[in-house]
Amino acid sequence: MCNLYRLDKSAGEVAEWFAARNDMAGANLGSEVYPGYPGAVIAGGRVRSMIWGFPLVLKSKKTGKPLKPKPVNNARTDKLDSFMWRYSFEERRCLIPLTAWAEAEGPKGAMTRTWLRLPDKPIFAAAGIWRGSEEWGECYSMVMTDAVGAASVVHSRMPVILRAGDYERWQVGTPEEARSLCVGYSGEIAVERTQDKWRR
After folding, report:
1. What is d(CA 159, CA 2) in angstroms, rounded to the nearest whole number?
2. CB 161 within 8 Å of CB 169
3. What is the mean pLDDT of the chain?
């Protein structure tokens, strides 16, 4: 599952690439996006800042009091009908712009970062869903599906990568039309293995 991705383009470049209005003028986003941190999404024709992950509030086993919310940043395609995701999938779908995503590889305790990207695209979009929350305001989650091709050698799942011709259908099509797009990406994927430790 994806717990780190990269977007090394400015909000203005993202807005131009996706023909969207830039609502993030002056926003300061990091090039690497982690769960629980802000990232750029395209929703309603606008580039907006939201928190990556739907808040999941758990209770302490010792005290019974609520713990700090945990960001649930991946929505599996086979779980989109569950209560956690259903209404967002049916009513609030977005594009998540990225230039690469990372997976952890290697033995436990010594995992390193492996980056995956589309070699023919300087920027592309993963399928996302979003909603408002009391804890963090607007937040989003990345839709994941079974990995195929080169990505399947790295991990069993991968983001749903959308082709440009499917951007509108993902955002405003019927749930059935959107669900038909939830498949592994059949195009070329470049894999870059690094010695960078997964956790810094």
Report:
1. 7
2. no
3. 94
pLDDT tens string 59-93: 888 888 888 899 999 999 999 999 999 999 999 99
- Indicate yes or no: pTM above 0.70: yes
Cβ atoms within 10 A of the Cβ of 26, count?
5
Query: In this model, does residue 188 exceed pLDDT 80?
Result: yes
DSSP annotation string for 81-126: TSTTTHHHHHH-EEEEEESEEEEEESSTTS-EEEEEE-TT-SSEEE
In sequence order, what DSSP letters do the residues of 147-166 get, joined into one string? --TTHHHH-SEEE-EEPGGG
Q: Give mean pLDDT, residues 33-54.
A: 96
How far is 138 from 157, CA to CA, in rounded Å?
A: 25
For the domain with range 5-197, which CATH number is right: 3.40.640.10, 3.90.1680.10, 3.30.360.10, 1.20.1080.10? 3.90.1680.10
Cα separation of 128 and 171, whole Å? 9
The full set of domain ranges for the chain reads 5-197
Helix (H) or strand (E) holding 176: helix 175-179
